[in-house]
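Here comes my example:
=====
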Amino acid sequence: MSDQPPATSAHAETKKTSSAQEQSSPNKPVRASRWSAASRWAAYAALAIAVVAVVLAALPYFHPMHKSASTPQQGGDAKANVCSAFAATQKAVVVNTHMQSRNPNDATAELAVATNARLALIGGGAYLRDRLDANTAAPADLANAANSLANTIEQLGINYLTGAGPVAQDSLRNDLNSQITQLAKMCE
């Protein structure tokens, strides 16, 4: 055996040296805490930006844009649009409420005809009211007459659906005839 101490590997010595340097280095823990504080602030800033972005994105939902004011130039177009909607509604109501079943003994055919009439009344009233809402520059007298007609035909449709008798329907039919005459004159 020899008098020399046993040889140590270079790898073992390197491990000892590097762990000794890690323990004795005072700058390393300070650097780590500086970086973690900076990354923490960056995360807070990103969170704040995200919250602001969500608020700005949701703002139009809670504060929708208001309809722009009508100008007199749009008045002529609005009247034409309302009169066109009135004509389409009148045609749909007249065609579908005067429809006859080809086979009066067929209950399904009778129900189909009645359903079309009710749909024309309720749908026609809603359509006419929607066109009024879209054409705010229409003359007030025309808008009032069209709104009144829309109410009357919708009420007729609801009454048919609920099985209202002729007493309730006759006065509405008379109102409907006078309203159609009045609107037709306004739209000439």
Q: What stands out?
A: The chain is about 80% helix and 0% strand. The two ends are 128 Å apart (CA to CA).
